[in-house]
Specification:
heterotetramer, A: alpha/beta, Rossmann fold, 2 domains, seven-stranded mixed sheet, 12 helices, 14 strands, B: alpha/beta, six-stranded parallel sheet, two-stranded antiparallel sheet, binds thiamine diphosphate, binds magnesium ion
Chain lengths: 337, 325, 337, 325
């Protein structure tokens, strides 16, 4: 019986369960795939993502660790260089700051520094962002993908749907390079169709989540939802936008993005992270470099404010982008000149 | 029940009991507000651990410094923080200590020497070392106390702090609250460090491990440490064994321990019960005065809730205020 | 006798000595200004910048520390919140990665998180970059300003001349906020005129280092030298470019930059750091947002390659920008369309 | 002069001497190449410290792992690295271990178990812990050795590594080379940790502090540690006292110590002299065989230089090769 015959009907699965299933399948396939992190065993990690995995795989493959982010990243590196394929969960991406030395100065560089003698197949799982995960404040709500997308040797992915979350995580686990795998906390409970059959989503491939020809919106992670909501509202007003989910932040899928913009001539970039120096700036810069002649309006950003994330909800609501802003900015772009 | 003789007057001891009760009611109230959706974010209760900050703070002046953690209400209230402004902060109000920007996990109360709650594990410890360094530099006699949990002993930065404080002989006291867990993980499962005196001695300072449920024992243990700091004799590590009665945060499932274990601890290890029994036994209070203390502690918390509820939310237009000084 | 009368004639001073003099003057002015770092006392720090300061100020103000970057940053924070104004030298900026948690999660955020109850006047001195400081390899040559420029609550400055180095450091020391002060290792020995009189350079103000009207080049740090060299060569060919030194990377001096571009209509951004996600992307994005209608050519970047810094010089030379590249890119911009 | 009895055959002992000489000549040569501008970057010599890696490596198999530091030539040569490829790496040649991408500070030699030099202080230690973890996970009996300097004891990550290795009982040996300085700073000025046995014991493992100038003493000390690791009995911390004869890097001004201090150390503490004297005294070699060993060690280095000089530079067009695997 072929895999296809086992049932092609996709099930509804949450983003959280999609991530879990990806780990589970890969851990079954290869016992050198190991999950490390604080409370990842019975407790299931910071958000319950890995629940039930310890029961199946035991300490050998699912291991509670001390609160030692930098050493854990370095330990993952040493294990990766000697035959394991570690997945390291940071409880919140904010704490990856403690490990950025081992991630960016070591894991990202060993392949190059050592002239190809080794490589570091590690997945750094980073729950990030705020939004419906409310009032977590300045140390539990940040979006820090820009730090990692700046470092050669790392790949950075940021799935927005259960389907992508599963396929990208499996690809990340099999990738010979260190991958910063960002999962948005507010997406964990969102549901989507996920096939029963095994599939992988290639790292580096964007996905057109909605087609249109009057403007392009680029949005990853939770922002994709807002972009799609905005697109729907815009459609009611007769503006058909294309919504691209980059899925991978590094390497960037220039083909997909540039093709869209050469068709629509207008582009709005959406990013939850603080505006200045975020990944949208890089998208914008490359679009300007490659599509200048096709642009009928300035490239525009809708982005998080340049402030630490406040606790009070009255303030918090002012900090992140929202669909209305996106609608307004797209309209501005469309009516430009 | 405590068997410790101290120099503390009955008045002060009753005040300490009241502070412990204030912490307890403050957090129980926060818990019910949280369940009713009136508080957001992560709220981490120190219920069961109240003796530690109260015993420590009995030695501290208002202008002494503390750094706190995600589980910091007790540290703050013991240090003299106004429960009104603290509650307002938990409710994200403009009248809160941090004008609603911080919340429970990032509260600070500079007026009473709190340099802040640092919810990144161990992250407040270097700050306390810095405050101690600053006092030494400025020739002032304030001391700094760094609170942290057992889980923080997994974090390398804390050893950097131990080392720096020892090398520079800084007026800092390190206070580890070993409440048996870091989230779901039992201390001994991930923290190898056990022998505190040997450890500290190997770094050239003093360390002790003591029962943290008896506030007078905490008080007694802390005396030498704070004196040492005050006299610029260098740091001390105080490691107190305690137990967390609530979940890691309100609403946390607690799959890692049995109800029985928790109940047994509540029955046997409650620092308020232990201290009350002592005070009753020693004749420093009777049932009636104990009730009065309880009522007055409760009243303060009720008032704090009222205050917080009445207080305005931060003005949304001011979301970018305070990013830069 | 007024300060002016003491002698207005500026002396030649090296970038290194200008930095030292700034610290010396500020430490004399305020005994709560203290320098911390590995080997900063008699040894003078990683590059001899602080030589002779310990002899003058003693342990009280110049303090050798253990190799404990994260704790040092946190210690600086605690000291700053209680009356000191610490300057912390990281021996190489690459190692600031170990302290990024305390810098970005704590120091940058205390003012905001704590609702203005406190502030953190700290200067993080970060020697960075490669170039004439050759063959230092992957861990001693990076340019990591983009990490810090992305974080609200921090200011980031990057002087290119002795004059700016001194004035900006004095301003940074007096600033009530944490300032990441980047010094380029290859600039230490370069000389320039520095007045005897006290002066400060306001943080947030760019400087037009050469006037022109056919294109604008923006370049900070060591790249300014290359930009000026390129400008000179372009002038020979009749192309007059304006060269702007942003000096401060956050906050960005939009006025100065936008005014120039609205005059020249063409802009080339130069950055030593790895191309993707560097500060030039943010410059470009903002220029596009604000000056789209004035642009006659795409905004272009000349930037470091997206690779870890190799050791061998044959490879190293391929990694960083050079003046010839800048000339070519400016010409492309000028001849665009 | 060593007074240690060992199980090592005379052949092996002579081989060890030769390795020490190879390290010495390798670095002296690197020093003169550096002065002549033929090497760039920072080159950090372990001259005076050769006994440590040679004594350790005598217990190691080729497939055991080491992680090294900025001062790593000795670790590599002792582990069996080819001096040709090592020298070529220092010269930035395509035939170098890292194809010229790494240089002295970032050399690695996977064919002999070196997971690399990590010039960020203490950064290699977690990697060794990871390799040990990996062996345990895969049921292999290879052990991992993490080399680091006294300065690394200021770095918090190393305590995270100690803790992790102890908690997980990993087959790793931590080797601290206390060469009295971190750049210009004397060990005791910034490192408070002194009592190694107490420290390690407080973390539940074994630590010893020993003289690192006598290769047989190093060998003897290391035996138990490596056996313990090999048998999955957990980590050991070996702390060796040694002395750095050269500056921190070639060309470093050394203002922090007197010439006399260095000369005295060279006279009294040279591990090659100490071992040679022992071997002569024990009759395992005579003046002539000692000369022969020296000549053959020198010859290997000469050959290495020749090899490196003849080797091609990396192709500039391949500057982006190996960024991703
Ligand atoms: C550096 C870091 N890693 C992980 C976390 C997530 N986290 C929050 S509290 C906690 C456990 C802390 O345990 P402990 O220090 O014992 O304090 P307790 O909660 O028991 O008071 C963890 C892992 C964090 N806040 N900071
Ligand atoms: C994290 C970090 N901080 C600072 C440096 C700069 N640095 C290079 S070597 C060194 C001293 C190291 O001393 P030690 O560990 O004793 O090794 P040794 O040089 O004596 O062999 C320092 C501070 C570094 N490489 N890494
Ligand atoms: Mg705990
Ligand atoms: Mg040393």
């Amino acid at each position: 019986m072929s895999t296809r015959e086992q049932g092609t009907s996709p099930r509804k699965l949450s983003y959280l369960l999609a991530i879990r299933e990806a780990m589970q399948e890969e851990m079954r396939r290869d016992k050198n795939v190991i999950l490390l992190g604080e409370d990842v065993a019975r407790h299931g990690g910071g958000f319950g993502v890995s629940k039930e995995l310890w029961e199946e795989f035991g300490d050998a493959q699912v291991r509670n660790t001390p609160i030692s982010e930098n050493c854990l990243a370095g330990m993952a590196l040493g294990a990766a260089m000697t035959g394991c394929r570690p997945i390291l969960e940071f409880m919140f991406m904010d704490f990856s700051a403690l490990a950025i030395d081992q991630i960016c100065n070591e894991a990202a560089k060993v392949s190059y520094m050592y002239g190809g003698q080794t490589n570091a197949p590690i997945v750094f799982r980073c729950p990030q962002g705020g939004l419906s995960y409310k009032s977590a404040g300045a140390h539990h709500s940040q979006s820090l993908e820009a730090w990692y997308a700046h470092i050669p040797g790392l790949k950075v992915v940021f799935p927005a749907t259960p389907y992508d979350a599963k396929g990208l995580l499996k690809a990340a686990i099999r990738d010979p390079n260190p991958v910063v795998y960002i999962e948005h906390k507010a997406l964990y409970s969102t549901e989507g169709l996920v096939p029963e059959e095994e599939y992988l989503i290639p790292i580096g491939k964007a996905d057109i989540k909605r087609s249109g020809n009057q403007a392009t919106i680029i949005a990853a992670g939770y922002m994709l939802q807002y972009a799609l909501e905005a697109a729907q509202n815009l459609a009611i007003e007769g503006i058909e936008v294309e919504v691209i989910d980059p899925r991978t932040l590094n390497p960037m899928d220039e083909d997909c993005i540039f093709t869209s913009i050469r068709k629509t001539h207008r582009v709005v970039l959406v990013q939850e992270a603080c505006r200045s120096g975020g990944v949208a700036a890089e998208w914008g810069m490359r679009i300007n470099e490659a599509c200048f002649d096709w642009l009928d309006a300035p490239i525009t950003r809708v982005a998080g404010a340049d402030v630490p994330i406040p606790y009070a909800q009255s303030l918090e609501n002012k900090v992140w982008p929202n669909p209305t802003q996106i609608v307004d900015v797209v309209k501005n772009a469309c009516y430009f000149k | 029940m405590s068997k410790i003789e101290t120099d503390l007057s009955p008045e002060i001891q009753l005040e300490m009991l009241k502070t412990m009760l204030k912490i307890r009611y403050f957090e129980m109230t926060a818990g019910s507000l949280y369940k009713r959706g009136l508080l957001k974010g992560g709220v981490h209760a120190c219920i069961g651990q109240e003796a530690i900050p109260v015993g420590i703070s009995a030695h501290l002046r208002t202008d002494d410094y503390i750094t706190s953690t995600h589980r910091g209400h007790g540290h703050h209230i013991a240090k003299g923080a106004d429960v009104k402004r603290l509650m307002a902060e938990l409710m994200g109000k403009e009248t809160g200590y941090c004008k609603g920007r911080g919340g429970s996990m990032h509260v600070a109360a500079f007026e009473v020497g709190s340099l802040g709650a640092f919810p990144i594990v161990a992250a407040g410890v270097p700050c306390a070392v810095g405050a101690a360094f600053s006092m030494m530099h400025q020739g002032k006699d304030q001391v700094a106390v760094a609170y942290f949990g057992d889980g923080a002993l997994g974090q390398g930065t804390i050893y950097e702090a131990f080392n720096l404080a020892s090398v520079l002989k800084l007026p800092v006291v390190f206070v580890c609250e070993n409440n048996c867990f870091a989230v779901s993980t039992r201390t001994e499962a991930t923290v190898a460090l056990k022998d505190i005196p040997s450890f500290a001695a190997s770094f050239g300072f003093t360390g002790v491990r003591e029962n943290g449920q008896d506030v007078l024992n905490v008080y007694k243990t802390a005396r030498a440490a704070i004196t040492r700091a005050r006299e610029n004799q260098g740091p001390t590590l105080l490691y107190f064994d305690t137990y967390r009665f609530e979940g890691h945060y309100f609403g946390e499932p607690e799959i890692y321990r049995t109800r029985e274990e928790v109940q047994k601890s509540r029955d046997e290890l409650d620092p308020i019960d232990i201290f009350s029994a002592y005070l009753l036994d020693a004749g420093m209070m009777n049932k009636q005065s104990r009730d009065e203390i309880e009522i007055s502690a409760r009243a303060e918390i009720e008032e704090a809730i009222e205050f917080a509820k009445q207080s305005p939310d931060p003005n949304p237009e001011e979301f970018a205020k305070y990013v830069y000084a």
